[in-house]
User: What shape does this take?
Amino acid sequence: MAKSKLIKTHERIAESVVEGYKRIEEGVVAGYKEIEDEAVGSFDKMADHFVDQFLTRDGESVAEARARLTRQQKEREEMKKESEERRIASQSAMQRDRQKTENRKAESERKAGI
Assistant: This one.
């Protein structure tokens, strides 16, 4: 009987400790989320103000300016990618031409007996 009372008491204590830790965890997570939401909201307000002050055109809203800037960034990235592809293709062509020239030179030297 004494052993079972001890076990039951131990289980109640364990449940209380677990419950306490869960409450603490929930409080910490809720506090973190609140701080995170406030920080993100403040950053968004600051970014919107910057876009409004320095990047909008006459009669353009902040949302329109952001969309325009995003579109322009995509266009720049596409142009950069195309430029890189052309550069690589050009290098490959030059390398093939060099290889052909070296092959012709080696063939002519072989025929000449050099």
Q: What stands out?
A: The mean pLDDT is 93. The chain has two helices and no strands.
